[in-house]
């Protein structure tokens, strides 16, 4: 994180004052592994749990580097003419495997808290997908809280429009220009959010309604109204079956439009989908040809080329 921050500062210092620039800055803190500089960890001696102690140090390190980037903009006289967008890519992990603990899970105290939202990274619940974000541009953005729906894919068309760049010749975009929502608090033009569409699960939000559909046995369907139940505590699937069917049809349509996900891994001719062996009819080789390392390879995310 400190190396990335230093490179960002050096980049800003090299920029001509009259030349616009775009800096995409992805720090690794506070991602796993939970390791932070000792001087950052030492600031939080009052936190007893080791993982939370270290996690606080990670966030402090991240905060320090963002401060250095902002200071670099100030020193170059660019601060007043720079839009800063900050957001996470997912919620914190509530699964010990995501935290890098592969043996005794009882010894892991997970440091992340997505409360009051349900679950965390890797799940389709709000705790895994709804994240904190802010935008800052002195004199151009009104100080306010904005609760309109914005998806990460909206950033490209929004920034392109601000820069005066046309997207007319691009491939069809999933994103929308949400600048008025960010800057003025206007209603968001986005009415649908696609969480995930995968061979074994999918989730989509339409307005206030959200459907989570898991196709692996045992299958399950969850329907929530996020306006009245933002913490996803009351499954309404049995109460609104027509809504469930309509949203399942939408997920299926999205699946037909999608490219095959890279997580469909093929090893020695036997298809493995997210660690689950396919049925014999779905692969070209007999089930007896499973690679003995298939489980660990799948869990570790090592992909092999698809056989011809």
Can you give a write-up of this model?
With 308 residues, this protein is α+β, with helices and mostly antiparallel strands. The protein folds into 4 domains: 2-150, Alkaline Phosphatase, subunit A; 151-190, no CATH class; 192-257, Arylsulfatase, C-terminal domain; 264-299, no CATH class. The chain has 8 helices and 9 strands. Strands 3-4-5-6 form a 4-stranded antiparallel beta sheet, with helices on one face. A 3-stranded antiparallel beta sheet has the order 7-8-9, with no helix packed on it. A two-stranded antiparallel ribbon has the order 1-2. The longest helix has 26 residues, at 50-75. The model is unreliable at 265-308 (pLDDT under 50).
Q: Which range does the strand content fall in?
A: 5-15%
Using the coordinates above, name the CATH class of the largest domain: Alpha Beta
Order of helices and strands: HHHEHEHHEEEEHEEEH
Per the principal axes of the C-alpha atoms, what is the gross shape?
globular
Radius of gyration: 22 Å
- The stretches of 5 or more residues where confidence is low (pLDDT under 50) are 265-308
What is the CATH T-level topology of the largest domain? Alkaline Phosphatase, subunit A
CATH architecture field of the largest domain: 3-Layer(aba) Sandwich
CATH homologous superfamily assignment of the largest domain: Alkaline Phosphatase, subunit A
Q: What is the overall pLDDT average?
A: 85
Structural class by SSE content: alpha+beta
**Can you list the strand order of the major beta sheet?**
3-4-5-6
Count structural domains.
4
Total of DSSP H or I helical runs spanning 4+ residues: 8
């Amino acid at each position: 994180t400190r190396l990335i921050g230093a490179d960002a500062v050096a980049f800003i210092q090299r920029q001509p004052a009259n030349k616009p620039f775009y800096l995409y800055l992805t720090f690794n803190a506070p991602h796993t592994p939970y390791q932070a500089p000792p001087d950052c960890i030492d600031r939080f001696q009052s936190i007893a749990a080791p993982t939370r102690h270290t996690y606080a140090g990670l966030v402090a390190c991240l905060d320090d580097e963002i401060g250095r980037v902002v200071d670099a903009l100030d020193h170059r006289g660019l601060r007043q003419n720079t839009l800063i967008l900050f957001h996470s890519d997912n919620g914190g992990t509530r699964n010990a495997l995501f935290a890098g603990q592969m043996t005794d899970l009882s010894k892991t105290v997970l440091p992340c808290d997505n409360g009051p939202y349900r679950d965390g990274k890797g799940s389709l619940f709000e705790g895994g997908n709804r994240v904190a974000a802010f935008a800052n541009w002195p004199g151009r953005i009104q100080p306010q809280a904005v609760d309109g729906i914005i998806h990460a894919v909206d950033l490209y068309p929004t920034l392109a429009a601000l820069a005066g760049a046309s997207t007319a010749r691009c491939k069809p975009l999933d994103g929308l220009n949400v600048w008025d929502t960010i800057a003025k608090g206007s209603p968001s033009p986005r009415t649908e959010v696609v969480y995930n569409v995968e061979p074994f699960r999918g989730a989509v939000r339409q307005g206030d309604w959200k459907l989570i559909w898991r196709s692996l046995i045992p299958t399950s369907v969850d329907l929530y109204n996020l306006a009245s139940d933002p913490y996803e505590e009351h499954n309404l699937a049995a109460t609104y079956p027509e809504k469930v069917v309509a949203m399942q049809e939408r997920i299926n349509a999205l699946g037909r439009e999608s490219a095959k996900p890279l997580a469909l891994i093929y090893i020695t001719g036997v298809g493995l989908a997210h660690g689950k062996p396919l049925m014999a009819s779905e692969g070209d080789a007999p089930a007896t040809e499973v690679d003995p390392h298939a489980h660990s390879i799948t869990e570790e995310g090592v992909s092999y080329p698809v056989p011809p």
